[in-house]
Amino acid sequence: MSAAEIPEPYSSPPRIKASTPRQLWEGPAYIDRGLLEVSGMKVESIEFDLEGCDDFEITTSSLNDVTFAAEHCATAEVRQSTFNNCDFGSLKFRSLRSASFVDSKLLGTDFSGAVLTDVLFERCILRYANLRRAKLSRVAFSNCTLLDIDAFEASFDDVDFSRSTLTKVNIDRVTANRVDIRTARELGLNAVGRLDGWLAAGHQLPELAAPLALSVGLTVAV
Question: In this structure, how many other beta carbons lie within 10 angstroms of the beta carbon of residue 122?
Answer without folding.
Answer: 17
